[in-house]
Amino acid sequence: MEISGIISAIVIGIVIGVLGRLVVPGRQRIGILLTILVGIVAALIGSAIAGAFDVADTRGVDWVEWLIQIALAALGVAALDRTRAHR
Question: How many CB atoms lie within 10 A of CB 72?
């Protein structure tokens, strides 16, 4: 992955984190910075998964890759929310 790919993954990760948070129902007990961090990690891992399944580079918008990333972000936000709830 090139530096431009990493930078774009960070920018996309911010959007992915916010979308992942919106997908999770209810109020989340984690801050926006943690949400963004989850989104960045989900974007990087989601890109790797999409690349492994050969759906990362398609014509037009990479909807499958976006769905994978958003699902991972939602799982990450929900998991962190659950750990915060038990404290």
Answer: 21
Q: How far apart are CA 79 and CA 9, in angstroms?
A: 22
Selection from 4, 32, 28, 23 nearest residue 69 by Cα: 23
Q: Are 12 and 43 in contact (CB under 8 A)?
A: yes
pLDDT per residue as tens digits for the range 15-56: 888 888 888 888 888 888 888 889 889 988 988 998 899 887
**Which element (helix H / strand E) includes 30?**
none
- Report the C-alpha gap between 1 and 14 in whole angstroms: 19
Please give the sequence-ordered ranges of beta strands (E in DSSP) within the chain, or none if there are none: none
Stated pTM of the model: 0.80
Query: What dihedral do alpha carbons 24, 28, 32, 35 form, nearest 10°?
Result: -50
Amino acid found at 84: R
Angstrom distance (rounded) from CA 34 to CA 13:
12
